[in-house]
Amino acid sequence: MIRRFDYGTPLPTDALVQEIPLCGETLPFFTVAKTENGLTFTYPLGREELIYGLGETVRGINKRGHIYRSWNSDEFSHHEDKQSLYASHNLLIFSGEGKPFGVFFDDPGEVIFDLGYTGADTAAITSVNGDLRLYLIEEDSLNAIVRSFRQAIGQCYLPPKWAFGYIQSRWGYAADGEVRTIVNEHRSRHIPLDGVCMDIDYMVDYKDFSWNKEAFPDLRQLSADMKQEHIRLIPIIDAGVKQQEGYDVCDEGLRNGYFCTCEDGTPFVGAVWPGRSYFPDFFRPEVREWFGKKYHGLMEQGIEGFWNDMNEPALFYSERGIAEARQELTKLLDMNLGLDAFFHLKDVLMGMQNNRRDYASFYHKYAGQQVRHDRVHNLYGGFMTRAAHEGLRSYDPDKRHLIFSRASYVGAHRWGGVWQGDNTSWWSHILMNLKMLPSLNMCGFLYTGADLGGFSGNTTEDLLLRWLQLGVFTPLMRNHSALHTRDQEIYRFGMQEDMKNILTVRYALLPYLYSEFMKNALTGGSMFRPLAFDYPEDAAALRIEDQLMLGEGCMIAPVYEQNARGRNVYLPEDMLLVRFRSAEDYCLIPMEKGRHWIDLDLNEMPLFIRKGCIVPLSRGGEWVEAVDFDTLTLLGWLDGDAAYAIYNDDGTVAAPVLADGLREIRVRTADGKAAAEAQGLTVDAAKLIVG
Amino acid sequence: MIRRFDYGTPLPTDALVQEIPLCGETLPFFTVAKTENGLTFTYPLGREELIYGLGETVRGINKRGHIYRSWNSDEFSHHEDKQSLYASHNLLIFSGEGKPFGVFFDDPGEVIFDLGYTGADTAAITSVNGDLRLYLIEEDSLNAIVRSFRQAIGQCYLPPKWAFGYIQSRWGYAADGEVRTIVNEHRSRHIPLDGVCMDIDYMVDYKDFSWNKEAFPDLRQLSADMKQEHIRLIPIIDAGVKQQEGYDVCDEGLRNGYFCTCEDGTPFVGAVWPGRSYFPDFFRPEVREWFGKKYHGLMEQGIEGFWNDMNEPALFYSERGIAEARQELTKLLDMNLGLDAFFHLKDVLMGMQNNRRDYASFYHKYAGQQVRHDRVHNLYGGFMTRAAHEGLRSYDPDKRHLIFSRASYVGAHRWGGVWQGDNTSWWSHILMNLKMLPSLNMCGFLYTGADLGGFSGNTTEDLLLRWLQLGVFTPLMRNHSALHTRDQEIYRFGMQEDMKNILTVRYALLPYLYSEFMKNALTGGSMFRPLAFDYPEDAAALRIEDQLMLGEGCMIAPVYEQNARGRNVYLPEDMLLVRFRSAEDYCLIPMEKGRHWIDLDLNEMPLFIRKGCIVPLSRGGEWVEAVDFDTLTLLGWLDGDAAYAIYNDDGTVAAPVLADGLREIRVRTADGKAAAEAQGLTVDAAKLIVG
Fold this sequence. Notes:
The structure is a homodimer. Chain A is globular, with a radius of gyration of 25 Å. Helix content of chain A is 26%, strand content 27%. By secondary structure, chain A is of the alpha/beta class. In chain A, strands 25-24-22-18-14-13-12-27-26 form a 9-stranded parallel sheet. Chain A has a 6-stranded antiparallel sheet with strand order 28-29-30-35-32-33. Chain A has a 5-stranded antiparallel sheet with strand order 1-11-8-7-4. The interface between A and B is large, with 60 and 60 residues.
């Protein structure tokens, strides 16, 4: 059951697709009071109470013990004490002694979540706006709360099937020949690959929807040639539109008044990659339609996927900031530049970027009003993705396209996927990215993944290898890195054979991964879940922070420490360990419920299958379309008959119907042997362990 | 056996106290070649080879898989990819298939350790100077290599016994009344305490050896009153001397030519906390003597301990840097401040701090030459500590005094302790600080510890509580935090009772901790050791990165994850788990060799005692001198007779003789019971478990 409570004058957010009527009762659990920061909801935490939710954030699956701040931020350094990343997903789920409950703070402005930080026994959530809808979600279990919330916020975005392939990306790929080389280096070594991302370098002066005609003299031919190789190109689109006369997007936007404005109605200018730029007012349907159709230009070149970036929106600086900085600099030059002046100057310069005053200085036309940006800041990125989604859909209404975004708010899960932002080549970020997965799923974001190997900083080959061993399971599986960092393509490293072998596991598992993605996407379930959600009565499972349930039958537990040759794992029930070296080189080890140490050499990765469950393994392929989803080896440890509902479709149908794609794999066991059958599939039961 | 190999024209470093003759043979293991960065020593790594050493650095006990850079740096953010911290400890120990060996690169300039980073199977160590002495240490075991090296570098610094007490510190304590309040808040709650650090705020304009007479109208009286309360004040001394006419230290330094100079012989000026400052040339004995005696002024006020800071030396900026920055700023103001200009300006400003060109622009008089600073950079901090050590010793030659430093090089371990630098209130830093301990011990630094609760950033109470549970074991046990961060004194928090209880464990364990410190300090042993050093044949022990051997009989394994209620522990042999809530509230659980999960509530901490070993537990006290070292409860799990050599002295004797302080505790077991005796001690065997 979901109940709605309103405070102040909430603006629409489009987070929900269900209309929940206003509840006339008093909000339970929380006390509500105006505080110096806004409107604060206070809830006493039980000593052993756990808190879930918040989607894309740093730290634990259990969010207790930190302050989080919903304020979409271009934040390049994801330390454990960061309060904000690129997205705002204001769902909390409290799991204490009584029945668990969820609460969604539907507020597009800044919201501060003090979850046992100031006082270890208190959660205090503050809406700075004070204008919000609060949804209270009460169901019998943690998983039921998520399903109820997910039903309310609507079905998540569905990518095409090819987008489950391995994607190579790097800030710096700048020319036709470079793209071809990267693809060749993969194909010639039989390293699976389905896509290459084009970062900002492909554009002319970072102008959206442009491409450098010298570097890419025939983009259509390149796309076509790549398509022959079963590779899709995935160009980036940024939020800011370069201020430049004669640039069609700029001219049209100005002419039609499509950009965000200052208070006086003149277009707001902020500097991002293209230099001084305008920001489309994605809050308006006509602006979204205009901007969305701009994607068609690249689609006409054969492009089928995009990523939206810088859409928090990031602001390097504004006219206001620069004027103030000039003033300060001039003042400081007049003085004897002493210690205080030096630190002040640094502060001024550092403070220009993503400055709060800039976010309070421009406006949207929204809900019939002129709305100051900071009141609705967290919606901006999602609405850009909505523009893209609608544009892509209008180009080809029957087809799914790839679109994923950096910034988002709940609701944006219906319009695109998200990547987990600009992480770093740190071992700690493997675990950070793992912990985000179930939280993102709770908030509707199923198509997601991290920059494998790490975006900023320099990777090492063992770090990339271990990270790939997690990436095998994430719907978006992309290797991405920043300019000026160490080359990070698999073929650069001595351990490339091990990395390639790990990729074969991904492609072999695609029938399972795609089935679990689609089944959960179409029914409001989570592909990744904390162990606590599936084993709520198991005290040990409650505090497991480095393992996840994956789909119906699996648990994952990757190695995330350098120089480790194994790890501790907790099995909440009997499970079959599959220790993979490659799709063809693996061993099966039945293991009992409980705590175990698992040996895992650098080139080995584990998958755990719940006793009684079946996981279908294909023969893999070097690209998604080469994978035969119908010829399957079944893995599992059975003590009786079992079944698995596998899903498949053509990979592009825009509105798939679950029932149409499901086929039942049935296994009968007798006398210690298993026999399998499935209509239209070739299923091999030889690897099933019975007993 | 240690062999010496010379390259180029090495400068003296005073790292060793033994004279090792030059070896005429060819250096084994390594190939040596001139490379673009300097002189490079290359060694092929076995697939499973581990690397130890490097003292104060980030990342693993096993250093493999990263680039480290010996270049003492004022580095406030200890990410896992930092290459340099405050100290340079150029010892490596390789442990592969053959016999392990150690190698000490005795080079006071920049040394780059590429340990399986560029190529996973290669270690490449580059001396930028190309002038160095290389010492090759070959012994039968890892522990023997350390003992051999430690013998060569001489006995480590010995602090007074009171310095093993709990110390409260904060950047910001600024007045007599504040110090008294802090002490009262501890004493009135019976939270043990032995010292209060005074950070830079006690000075006048950050002038070394000054104190603010308004804030501290009678420092001598304050010291005396504190001494009555069994509290020592521990003021900070920085490396830079404020440029100010009439300030005696400045005037004397200038008059006598005691400061580092520019190439032309004029004193070098750099900005640090006091603004423009001079830097004493600690490389000269007469400068050390002069500066060391300056400490006497504070000692005359009753001070018995100091900490030396900013002695890498940190440089906020120099005259050169400021001139260049002004020029750049002026240029930029003349332009339309665009994107490139903006980022360039940021780079200029950020690059002014600790700029390499500044370190190449001043000179020391050393070894009969004018030596450019960057050639000997890493010696500076240690030589400042040497000045302090010699000054303190000259004030009272029969007494030990407390001195610990931020920067150091091998050799400085003879002159003072080190704290582990300006860490952050991050959970990951508990583990980082744990991992530094054995590496620091290998390099001679036994008196060490981390800023408990974290220096920068805001702690949470659970973080401080868990960090204290590690700090219980570190010789330096200091809670320290930065200006503008959350108050971090124990009494600020709801969990203060739990924290106090943890402190009682520290004070109860002092007889063991002091014994193990002194025995190892006086014999060249390590108080903290990787498990691999004590169990070299145990493959599981080799890769344990979150447990340490502590002294003769113990292993530690603190909890370092937020919201955890226990942890996995590997026991390399049968051990007794002591689960402490306080010195009086603990339980004893014999456990078998192997992997275990240990439940540990927030207020519980484990100590593991090797089967057959005894750990003496005192009744504790609220300050060190109140602890009765002679009345002891023995903890242990015995299957036969056992003994422990306990050490004690008056806590201040300058040159203690090990044999004079040792007393043997002997335990006889028979019929499942234990009886203990020790001359001059009251020992209680009732808690010993036999069987």
